[in-house]
Design brief:
The chain has about 240 residues and is of the alpha/beta class. Helices cover about 45% and strands about 20% of the residues. The protein contains nine helices and seven strands; from the N terminus they run H-H-H-E-H-E-H-E-E-H-E-H-H-H-E-E. Helix 3 packs across helix 4, helix 6 crosses helix 9 and helix 7 crosses helix 8. The longest helix is centred in the first third of the chain and has 16 residues.
């Protein structure tokens, strides 16, 4: 699995990292709302005023997971992991500007590089799973997170699902998001071409639920949807 995840991380070079925050908000209608809801759901699951150690997987690109959660629960502490140095540097800069350095530990690498013990009260995996090729590697990543969570701990999972080519209307609407920002038809074609070649999303929400179950999670519940994107909370099986 390490090689597959390293290959996925290689896509996020300094050039792509530099445009990530702007492009992600175009590609995902409701980007900020999804992250805000993720923090709200997680805080509801753990309880207001709780103290928690939270694992943020795929934390590069600014880690709004951390800033949003901290607004609600200032007593939480975060361990942020990402295999892309360029993306993790964006997060380092963002946390420094927001004054959140002291509540976050950054780790360049993979989840499997962390100690394999049930130490975390919660975890997030946002915008990552559809970049991992194949169901076997997806389950392995989810299972590596489960091994580091306490029994019953919640996981926030968000990312694309559905096979892009099987939903041409949604794909065309996705392209129109870029047109709204001034992209030409030729530029839209290039962007959609990269999407079609560069990701392997689960085929359906039922597939997401099966992946979670195979990795040791239960009780998945959807709380956000936007075109191909979905977000869920699930819990490590006790």
């Amino acid at each position: 699995m390490r090689n597959l995840l390293s290959d996925s991380a290689a896509k996020f070079d300094p050039a792509r990292a530099g445009e990530y925050q702007e492009q992600s908000r175009i590609a995902l209608a409701g980007y900020d709302a999804c992250h805000e809801l993720a923090a709200a759901i997680l805080a509801a699951a753990l309880g207001t005023g709780s103290r928690a150690q939270v694992l943020i997987v795929g934390a590069g690109g600014g880690a709004p997971e951390i800033s949003n959660a901290h607004r609600l629960e200032p007593n939480w502490r975060f361990t942020a992991v990402d295999p892309s140095a360029a993306m993790l540097e964006l997060t380092r800069q963002h946390l420094n500007q927001a004054g959140l350095d002291d509540c976050t530990e950054l780790h360049l690498g993979l989840v499997e590089d962390l100690p394999e013990q049930s130490a975390f009260d919660a975890a997030t995996l946002i915008g990552v799973l559809h970049h991992v090729p194949g169901d076997e590697a997806k389950v392995a990543l989810l299972a590596s997170i489960a091994k580091r969570l306490k029994p019953g701990a919640p996981l926030i999972l968000a990312g694309n699902r559905l096979v892009y080519r099987e939903h041409p209307l949604l794909l065309a609407a996705w392209g129109n998001r870029w047109r709204m920002t001034g992209a030409t038809p030729a530029e839209v074609e290039v962007k959609l071409g990269k999407i079609l070649q560069g990701a392997d999303p689960p085929a359906a929400e039922s597939t997401v639920f099966n992946l979670l179950a195979d990795a040791g999670f239960e009780r998945p519940l959807s709380f956000f949807s936007s075109l191909f994107w979905g977000a869920w909370i699930a819990y490590r099986a006790g």
